[in-house]
Amino acid sequence: MRRRHILWATAAAGAVALAAWGLFHPEFRPDPGLVDAALRAELAKTGFIAARGVRSARLEQVETVERFRQDLVSHQEIMARDALLTEKRSRRYRKGNASAVLDESTGFTVGPISVVRYWRARPLLIGGFLPYHFWTRYRLLEFSVELNDRFPLAPGGRLVARVASEIRFSDGISAAPDRGQVECRVEELADARTIADRLSGSAAKLYCREQLEHAGISEYRHWYLIDAGWSIPIEGSYPIPFGNEKLPLSWTSRLVAYE
């Protein structure tokens, strides 16, 4: 009987500790130290700046893999960490079910380029109580600009860079660095009010294609607000593992509100 009481007391203490973590721990924030000075210098050559004048956004997204489709809503917090890096924190749920967060992510971007990104699925009920080490991390290791021709300020402007990146999984194991090339071009310049009525200035519609040795080919389009430094996703695709093969996951995104 006494042993049972001890077990119950231990379980109760564990539950209290977990609840205290969930209620009082600070939000997980990525470390800017993961972006060293050499990497910053090359990223600055892209012509992108950190987002300003916007704090949050709500996006409606659709993901499809073969016949499977998900309609999602993403709530995103946006803040400049310095003149170059934008920190974005996102939580996503199925459209019409805002109480059940499916996944969350946080990290740094430079324009549409992901520099550091942490993400995890968020289990129901206990998602807010999980400690920090349950995140998977993507990190850009190298970025070397080979060409910048009027990018991102002019139609037809082009950017080409060599890249290397790594993924560290939630169990602490890191995949070998993946190397390749990213190429972006300006498809058009438009009035930012075509995206949302309250926006101002010019917006560049960017198309980027990244080809890595192991991960394969990813493509995406973003609107980039030239004066505000804010990159807004439009559509894209990337390969995901499925058994012994990879299937293309396609996505679309639409801005529905922002502050």
Question: Could you characterize the architecture of this molecule?
Answer:
With 259 residues, this protein is mainly β. It has one domain (28-258). The protein has helices at residues 2-24, 37-44, and strands spanning 56-65, 68-80, 86-94, 101-110, 113-121, 136-149, 158-168, 178-191, 202-212, 216-225, 230-242, 245-258. Strands 1-2-3-4-5-6-7-8-9-10-11-12 form a 12-stranded antiparallel barrel. β6 (136-149) and β7 form a beta hairpin. Mean pLDDT is 89; it is low at 11-24.
Principal-axes shape call: globular
The order of strands across the largest sheet is 1-2-3-4-5-6-7-8-9-10-11-12
Structural class: mainly beta
Q: What portion of residues is helical?
A: 10-25%
Helical run tally: 2
Distance between the termini: 58 Å
Q: What is the C-alpha radius of gyration, as a whole number of Å? A: 20 Å
Name the beta content range: over 45%
Mean pLDDT: 89
SSE sequence, one letter per element:
HHEEEEEEEEEEEE
How many E strands? Answer: 12
Uncertain stretches of 5 or more adjacent residues? 11-24
Count of structural domains: 1
Largest sheet: 12 strands, antiparallel, barrel
Task: Give the secondary structure arrangement, pairings included.
Elements: H1 2-24, H2 37-44, E1 56-65, E2 68-80, E3 86-94, E4 101-110, E5 113-121, E6 136-149, E7 158-168, E8 178-191, E9 202-212, E10 216-225, E11 230-242, E12 245-258
Antiparallel strand pairs: 1-2, 1-12, 2-3, 3-4, 4-5, 5-6, 6-7, 7-8, 8-9, 9-10, 10-11, 11-12
